[in-house]
Structure formats: C-alpha cells, structure tokens
Amino acid sequence: MLLKRLRDLNIFQVVKTKYLFITNSTGYSHKRVCDPFIDYFGEDIELLRLSPKSNPVVIIQNIFYLGNFILKNRIKIKKVIVVGDLFYIGLFFKKKAAYIFDFNILKDASRNRSIFTKLAFRFKCVYPLYFYDELFFFNKMIEDEYKDICFEKKNKQLVYLPVPIHPSFYPLMNYSELLFNEKKEKIRNGKLSVICFGHTENKNLEMALRICQELSNKFSLCVNVVNDKFNICDRFNNIQINRYSDIKDAEIIELYKKSNILLFPSLYEGFGMPIIEAAVSQCLVVTSDLFPMNSLLNSAVLINLSGDISVNIAAIEEGIKNYNNLAINGFKEAMEYHVRKINKLLLY
Description:
By secondary structure, the protein is α/β, with parallel strands linked by helices. It is built from 14 helices and 12 strands.
C-alpha cells in the first residue's frame, strides 16, 4: 500500500528545489504579504496555506497535509518562510525563516485566558521561534516585543523587512504622472475626494469623519469609506459619504485612483500598508503621529490624535496647499517598498 502511494505521488522522479511560503488559510493580510514575492520569483516559490487553529487534531492534520504537499509536488525545499503564526511547522525544516506580524496580538490573545490556552498558544506561536535562524519583523516595535516575550538564541539573525507593495498596484506606477496631474487639478479647484477605512476599531473612522466634517466647510468634499463595520457613517449625515463593503482588490484600487487624500488616523497598526498604497496612487497621506504610521513616509501629514482638532485641520490644509511636492516625494518613497528592493533580504 505504501509503495503504491509513493508511485502515485511520483516520488522517485526528479524534484525541483524551491522556496516554500507557509501561511494562515484564513488570513487575508498574510496572503497579501506573500503575493509580491510569489509574483516576483514565479516558479521558484510554492505557497501552502494551513489552518491556524491550535487544537491537536488540526496541528496533526497540518503536518500530514504539509508532507503530502511536498511529496505530491516533488519539491526539495531550499528554504521555508512561515508568514503569520504557524511557526511550529517550521520545525520540520533545516533552513527556516519566520516573517512576524504583530506580537501585540500574541500578548492580547494570551491575556485573560486559561493556563492551558496560554500554553497551547505559546507552544504553537512563540516557543518554536527559538529554533529559527532568521526572524523578519515589520517594524522595530515588533522586534522589541519579541525580545520581551522570547528567550534569545545566540547568532540568530533579526532583520527589519517592510511589507512590499502588492502586485495589483503595479499598473498604477505606469501612469503615475497622468494620475498626479488629474489629482493636482482637482485639488487646485478645491475638490477633495477622501478615502478612509472602518473595518476595525483601531482605524479610528469616527475621527476621520470628524476631520472630513471640518474640511467640508472650506472644500467641496466627497468621502469614500471602506467597510464601515460599526455604522459610524450614520452619525455624519451632513457630508457626502459613499460606503463600500466587502470589495475586491481591483475595486480598492479604483477608489485610490479617484481619491486624492488618504485619511488614516489609526490608533495602531502592524505595518500600515494603506499609507504606502495611497502614496503609490498619488494621494496626499494624512495619518497618525504614532509608530509605525509616522515612520513609513517623510512626506505624510502627521496629526496628533489627542490634540486640538483645529491644529490638525490647519496641518492638513497646509498639506493640501503643498500637495504637489508631498505627492511627488511620497511616490518616490513608496517605490522603496517595491519587492525588487527588498527581496534579497528574504530570499537568497
């Protein structure tokens, strides 16, 4: 039976040496991180998405699925890169790297839970990292959080690796000048089209709409809200709001194209990819003066979330006046997040 199974899998045929990305099957952002590398390296990469659940049955199923995947596709693994929180899977490989999202999630998930749940979570997501030779972090804060949680292994490589621009945004780069001229003309005529997000509480949509309400006193304003999960828009009937929910990547890009300002007063982020996406789309970026949002672009307009709203409005109006320089510089800075600039850090 075993020999028959091996013959069915063609295990005796020549294998291909590849990089293997392993990520969360339910994580939209996890897959988006992998996409640029897969697009750039093509056939040199395989992607495997496994269940993130922590119960023993699922863990065993994941391990068997991994082995079957490698045998069936006749892959010899050059290096495995685990993206997200399935770090126990990497223990089965000699050369492995972890691309770590947000350790605040690990802390919050292990708080106010049973001892068994805490231990299960840490054995799955934290302790396996001791056996990795390379750890990649979105930002310095996550690296510091890792050091607070984990005991350190000598000679482990800790590397800052920003999230690359998603391939779906590449077409915008080909006509960036045309896009810039269109948006510059609208701003010159006092027409603002704002894009903001509301699918999680940390996006701080209410503050974004309060700012829009103030800006509407001086500008012709249209607000494009993506995923108003908490129906915050209902409180702002005096401004023009277009609501979008459960939209696809192509639709998001269209919203960026017709918007000239990103209003992103987020309370916290693992990375803050909308900031880079908006800059690629020639939008004026307005975001929180909090880490990591304030570290991504020097050209972003930074606002103090606990400060006087009139001061923030003044800063935004100054940014609108200086749109030309900020948008041009923002686009140049965003190009540093192209996968071709950072791929050598992850794969070599």
